[in-house]
Amino acid sequence: MTNNGAMAAKTAGLKRRTFTREFKLQVLREIEAGKSQAQAAREYQVNDNTIWKWRRQLRKYKDQAFAGRGHAYTDEARVHELERMVGRLTMENDFLKKLLQRLETES
């Protein structure tokens, strides 16, 4: 095995870093306060493109941005959230229709 192969095997086992929501928001607040994005990237040892993605996600999803465990809130997640809401509201609507029918037949 060559030296390059050994190095490739070592780097293949590295885990991807995940950042907490609070950390991401802290970095973005500092940038909004006037720190340059490049300076924040160097200071926190985060790629400039990563910070750019965080800024885009925060702009697009606001409070839902960085919702869980390093995974980005996506349009797909929003669709699932809305589908659950539609299902719940449909069940409530059906319940209220049946209740109204029962009350109308009793009176």
Characterize this entry briefly:
The protein has helices at about 5-10, 20-30, 35-45, 50-60, 75-105. By secondary structure, it is mostly helical. It folds into two domains: about 15-75, Orthogonal Bundle (Arc Repressor Mutant, subunit A); about 75-105.
Can you give a write-up of this model?
The protein has 107 residues and is mainly alpha-helical. The protein folds into 2 domains: 17-73, Orthogonal Bundle (Arc Repressor Mutant, subunit A), CATH 1.10.10; 74-107. Helix content is 71%, strand content 0%. The protein contains 5 helices and no strands. It has helices at residues 3-12, 21-32, 37-44, 48-61, 75-106. It is elongated. The relative contact order is 0.07. The model is unreliable at 1-9 (pLDDT under 50).
What distinguishing features does this structure have?
5 helices; mainly alpha; elongated; 0% strand
Write down the overall mean pLDDT.
Answer: 84
What is the CATH topology classification name of the largest domain?
A: Arc Repressor Mutant, subunit A
User: CA-to-CA gap between the ends?
Assistant: 88 Å
Helix/strand-derived category reads mainly alpha
Number of domains: 2
How does the major sheet shape up? none
Helix content: over 70%
Question: Helix tally?
Answer: 5
Poorly predicted runs are: 1-9
The outline comes out as elongated
What is the N-to-C order of secondary-structure elements (H for helix, E for strand)?
HHHHH
| Highest CATH level, the class of the largest domain | Mainly Alpha
